[in-house]
Amino acid sequence: MSKNIVLKKGLDIPVSGAADLVVSKSMNPSCIAVLPDGIKGLLPRLLVKEGDRVLCGSPVIADKKNPDILLTAPVSGIVKEVVRGEKRKLLAVLIEAEDAIECVHFDTSDVKTALLQSGLWPLIVQRPYGTMADPATSPKGIFVSAFNTAPLAADTEFTLGSEVQAVQRGIDALATLAPVHVSLDGSRKDSAFAKLTGCTLHYFQGKHPAGNVGVQISHISPIQKGETVWTVSLAGLAAIGKLFAKGTYDIRRKVAVCGPAALNTSYVDVLPGTPMKSFISFWGGDATDLRIISGDLLSGIAVGPDGYLGRDAEQVTIIREGYEKELLGWIRPLRYKQFSQDRSYFSWLFPCRKYDMDTNLHGGPRPFLMNDNYYSRVLPMDIYPVFLAKACLAGDIEKMEKFGIYEVLPEDLALCEFVDPSKNYIQDIIAQGIDLMLKEMA
Questions:
Q1: Distance CA 199, CA 23 (A)
Q2: How far is CA 354 from CA 139, 292, 336, 339, in A?
Q3: How far apart are alpha carbons 66 and 116 in whole angstroms?
Q4: What is the maximum span of the chain, computed from C-alpha positions, in angstroms?
Q5: Cα 131 from Cα 139, distance rounded (Å)
Q6: d(Cα 222, Cα 431) in Å, to the nearest integer?
Q7: Which of 328, 345, 326, 323 has its CA nearest to residue 336?
Q8: pLDDT (tens digit, 9 = 90+) per residue, 84-133?
Q9: 327 has pLDDT over 70
Q10: Left if phi > 0, otherwise alpha if psi is -120 to 50, otherwise beta: which for 127?
Q11: Angle 385-394/426-441 helices, nearest 10 degrees?
Q12: Which of 155, 310, 334, 378 could be stapled to 415 by a disulfide with Cβ–Cβ 3.0 to 4.6 Å?
């Protein structure tokens, strides 16, 4: 049975540079990275060495705590380099790709075993805390968001509308592990995913963060203490479906290249782990004053031109760095080219305008506002964001539980950070609180 949920809180950030609905190129770079960093809960153990040949689907990294959890190669080729950081932290395994991809074929008779052996298991995220899912747990549900409302987000109808059969196959597989809930964009009744079966469909309408799976869970089945849910992205669900349809590891996807500083905007067909240098035509070669983001503007990761496309990224965002200081600052209301959520500028008279935004904070950190309503009006969840953030800063576990730490990940409060006049890094604060909960409650 489907449900229709209308969210009245939120904010759509009117930034320019949305990707045109066209695939401009298919990228096949000579080198692809396997990236263990960023998978919360994974303690990587290297299974290969430089010079080894791997197939697409061959294990490259295992989890030290649970050796059954693997990261596998997205291409066949030779292990070119093992990249390590401080204290020999494993950052990436670089694979020199072959022209003709040779794949490992997996036995898909058992769902959980197939997901573990293929390397797709880390695509499943466990809440609370946003860690890699524990194969030994039984979640109360698996939640999927079939649309994205983040700034300049990729259009899932365009990127995955042609892969409905793979998505359906993924649902059929995951439904053997727990009930599956799929949330659709309520403003698009003609969605290609509206005919999915074997799951409960929910329709959400509203501004960002209506497309965040954490917000959707809070309205469908809020997470209580002691409960566990799993989430997976729609692209991840399609990859799971391809595994059970073809028996091979295939995580190739369409990614939006967008942003106000992009020379041209479009979609590209690409593998996660692709070097950002492959996207150089979209910013022109000189990235000195640019921020290259793997992901969206609010919660993506600034990887720079020497980084790699993240495992879960569905867009590459290019935006200018904002270094300049402004004379008189906020007391200049006649600023038609700058956006203000509070109508501090007269730009609110042009509600359809898109803005060439940059990274300038227009101020520095200062104490939190005492009025929680300021943040709550962009967060359609039944929590107290300021009190939660303060509890995280204080390390007060009891209050963190009271104010909703089990229901959120940093991305869910990204808009609170955007509208915060105090310029606090709220996502970092929430991440610190989650790390404390993992340490103390494990």
A1: 30
A2: 41, 20, 11, 9
A3: 10
A4: 67
A5: 13
A6: 20
A7: 345
A8: 999 999 999 999 999 999 999 999 999 999 999 999 999 999 999 999 99
A9: no
A10: beta
A11: 60
A12: 378
What are the tokens at 359?
Answer: 């990274």
The single-letter code of the amino acid at 388 is: L
